[in-house]
Design goal:
The complex is a heterotrimer of chains A (105), B (103) and C (312).
Chain A lengths: L2 H22 L3 H23 L9 H32 L14
Helix pairs in contact in A: 1-2, 2-3
Chain B lengths: L2 H26 L3 H26 L3 H31 L2 H6 L4
Chain C lengths: L2 H22 L3 H21 L3 H28 L11 H23 L9 H11 L4 H9 L1 H19 L10 E2 L10 H23 L7 H17 L11 H24 L7 H28 L2 E3 L2
Antiparallel strand pairs in C: 1-2
Helix pairs in contact in C: 1-2, 2-3, 3-9, 5-6, 6-7, 7-10, 7-11, 8-9, 9-11, 10-11
The chains are: A mainly alpha (105), B mainly alpha (103), C mainly alpha (312).
Chain lengths: 105, 103, 312
């Protein structure tokens, strides 16, 4: 068990947690959160893969790609939030059509 | 471990104790204002002791100065945010502030 | 198990719990708060992995700016009464989803463990060539030299994302000002804080770009600090958001990508697109990073501010 493996396994679990939230939660702000959690889980996997050598600092190429990814994730989150706010303004709901009713019944 | 290491460890432990006390206050106190009181007092002191503990281990004066700046900025931000939250809580009904402080 | 590894396991477990609380909790605001905590825990995880540049980016962007964006979104939804969590699917469906998600997580973990252990990756190649990149921080060397085309595309993606956000503006507000006008009590704590912090924030921003060539830091982290200064100035009422129709603000946004593209094209004339000889590359990288920092800072701050809500 190494530090890199611990965080890579953490990343894999986060992908699962994010996926679960994305499937089961209808509120779109929660889906945006879930989407970001999946993303950072994948970053952790990539970072874990880049530091398996046990060197002082991990492989700089995955690091640079992850920094790029974090910035792109923010810009997409901002776009998703803007779309969500517009959806709420126009329909009064923060869920996709057909997902606002309880299916528990 | 030499004397500096022991001092550093002691200081960090004291800091952690303050954080635990503050967190207990956050969880147990009944309303926004007393929770804020617990949090800001405990966390500022806790971070102060942890910063001190870390600073003892630093060799360069430059690093110590950076830790000092970090601590001061955190205290400043925490004090400002605490004031804003307290003011916002005053604006809401007392029972709402007590039962539903996170809004 | 040694104590450091024990800390790693505890931190990883905390991050997963925070993520679960963010997606599975009842209250939407609590979810947002848990997400911010999650971002800070992940930044700590990057520190433990030795990826200081990523930790800085995650703390500043992943937890900081995304947090401001999400809280802003929550308050807009709250005002329109759209923060009620709709009832979820039936418990059978939830169980099915949990099973499927867990299988994906296990599959990903198994694939990771099965990766060939002897893969040295690209670290040796970067180490050998870092002297030719003009900077000594390997991450900055990758970002602005070896894989500069990624970064060029990224800055363009940022500008396009902002254009996409602006495209959601209502017709009558086109060219207007994003967000609501913020007021702070004169001489109150927020106004004082908003006046005290920006000079220090500017200094930290400039320092982070400069330090980025040899130590952890760089244009993106610095730009986030500057964007935070911008947002603080707006929140404390010291400054209003600019109108999106302003030519100055549009030029500021495209200046970074445009200069980067011009630099790449200049390199193409000398032989390689985005390639420059080592003796001038260092100077050019720092110069481009400063312009990029200003453009990215403006883009990030305006992305968080959102669509125009009023006219001048």
């Amino acid at each position: 068990m190494s530090t890199a493996l611990v965080y890579a396994l953490c990343g894999a679990s986060l992908v699962g947690v994010g996926l679960y939230g994305f499937i089961t939660r209808a509120h779109l702000l929660r889906r945006i959160l879930a989407f970001n959690i999946i993303g950072s889980g994948i970053f952790l996997l990539l970072g874990g893969a880049g530091s398996r050598q046990g060197a002082v600092s991990p492989d700089p190429v995955p690091q640079a790609v992850i920094i790029t990814g974090i910035v792109v994730a923010l810009s997409l989150t901002a776009l998703a939030v803007a779309l969500l706010v517009r959806l709420v303004e126009d329909t009064g709901r923060a869920t996709l059509p057909g997902e606002d009713a309880s299916r528990d019944a | 471990m030499n004397v500096a290491d022991w001092l550093s460890a002691l200081s960090i432990l004291v800091g952690v104790a303050f954080f635990i006390a503050g967190t207990a206050g956050l969880l147990r106190f009944p309303d926004v204002h007393s929770r804020l009181h617990a949090l800001t007092k405990a966390d500022n002191l806790g971070l102060g002791f942890i910063s001190l503990g870390v600073a003892i281990r630093m060799a360069e004066p430059w690093s110590i100065a950076k830790i000092l700046v970090v601590w001061m900025l955190t205290v400043l931000a925490a004090a400002t945010v605490a004031q804003l939250i307290a003011r916002a809580a005053l604006g809401t009904a007392p029972e709402e502030a007590g039962a539903d402080d996170h809004r | 198990m040694n104590p450091a590894l024990l800390f790693d396991v505890a931190l990883a477990a905390l991050a997963v719990v925070a993520a679960l609380s963010a997606v599975a909790g009842r209250d939407l605001f609590a979810s947002v708060a848990f997400y911010i905590v999650y971002g800070i825990l992940i930044a700590l995880a990057w520190m433990r992995l030795g990826a200081v540049d990523v930790a800085l980016a995650e703390a500043a962007i992943g937890a900081g700016l995304t947090g401001v964006l999400l809280i802003g979104a929550w308050s807009q939804l709250h005002r329109k009464g759209a923060t009620e969590t709709p009832p979820g699917p039936s418990s059978a469906a939830r169980l099915l989803a949990a099973g499927a998600s867990a299988s994906v997580a296990v599959l990903v973990a198994v694939i990771f463990v099965g990766l060939p252990a002897d893969g040295a990756g690209l670290a040796p190649a970067v180490r050998e060539n870092v002297a030719e990149s003009g900077v000594s921080n390997p991450v900055t060397a990758v970002l602005l030299n070896f894989r500069a085309y990624d970064t060029l595309m990224e800055t363009i993606v940022l500008a396009v994302a902002l254009a996409a956000v602006w495209s959601l503006t209502r017709d009558e507000l086109w060219g207007g000002i994003p967000g609501l006008r913020q007021h702070a009590r004169d001489g109150g704590v927020l106004a004082t804080f908003g006046r005290l912090l920006p000079p220090l924030g500017l200094l930290v921003g400039v320092y982070l770009v400069w330090a980025g060539s040899s130590m952890p830091g760089g244009a993106f982290q610095a730009a986030t600090v500057l964007a935070a200064v911008w947002l603080l100035l707006v929140m404390s009422g010291a400054m209003d958001e600019p109108a999106i129709g302003s030519t100055a603000i549009r030029l500021t946004i495209v200046a970074g990508p445009a200069l980067f593209l011009a630099y790449g094209t200049g390199g193409a004339f000398l032989g390689t697109f985005l390639g420059f000889p080592a003796d001038v590359a260092g100077m050019l990288i720092v110069a481009i990073e400063y312009v990029l920092t200003v453009s990215i800072a403006a883009t990030l701050a305006l992305l968080v501010a959102g669509v125009p809500r009023r006219q001048e």
